[in-house]
Write a structure and sequence with these properties.
mainly alpha
């Protein structure tokens, strides 16, 4: 079992994998709201897309940090340019460019339209960078930490329960954070409208 081979360092996967999972969910939500914005031209949809992208970016950074800590413990250095490390770094650059694009355009409707198109194309890279690239190139990253090649769980019942509980809790925390961020965003919009 991978957990026995790695030892206590394997516990980081209770954080690392759920953070990567949330990153994918958030970027997918950003893409969906971007599509909805392009169909409706309703800035509320753009607002939702931005919140999801911001949270996805935060969770992507957290997944990178926890992955680096794991790399230090198991491979001896924080960064090895392993395919998974490289692909998540590229993902951070892609979504960093999304925020740069938003910051570079002042007209709100134009900013929303450009960002929405970019968000759609950016998400196309997410499954490729997270799921495909790391599996077609040899990697130091453990392949069988959850399921083996026969699609059977490599985790014991206790570890499996903790892991899936962590996954569920991270998902709940993400949607709670998303809800809070949206409420703040709505209040900020109302404040701007009062000032105008």
């Amino acid at each position: 079992m991978p957990q026995q081979q790695i030892g206590e360092a394997s516990r980081i996967f209770y954080y690392h994998i759920p953070q990567a999972w949330i990153c994918v969910i958030a970027f997918a939500m950003s893409m969906i709201y971007s599509i909805r914005y392009l169909k409706s031209k309703d800035l509320v949809e753009d607002d939702k897309a931005v919140v999801a992208a911001k949270l996805g970016f935060v969770f992507c950074i957290l997944a990178t940090i926890t992955g680096s800590i794991f790399a230090k413990v198991t491979w001896g250095s924080f960064w090895n340019w392993d395919p998974r490390e490289t692909s998540i770094f590229i993902l951070l650059l892609i979504y960093g460019a999304y925020f740069a694009l938003r910051g570079a355009v002042e007209v709100e409707e134009k900013k929303a339209s450009l960002a929405a198109v970019y968000s759609i194309f950016a998400f196309i890279t997410v499954p490729f960078l997270i799921f495909v690239v790391p599996r077609i190139v040899p990697s130091l990253h453990p392949e069988d930490s959850i399921v083996d090649q026969n699609l059977e769980f490599t985790m014991g019942p206790v570890v499996r329960t903790i892991f899936f509980s962590s996954l569920a809790l991270f998902t709940v925390v993400y949607f709670w954070m998303y809800s809070l961020a949206r409420r703040v965003q709505i209040l900020e919009r109302k404040q701007l409208e009062l000032e105008d």
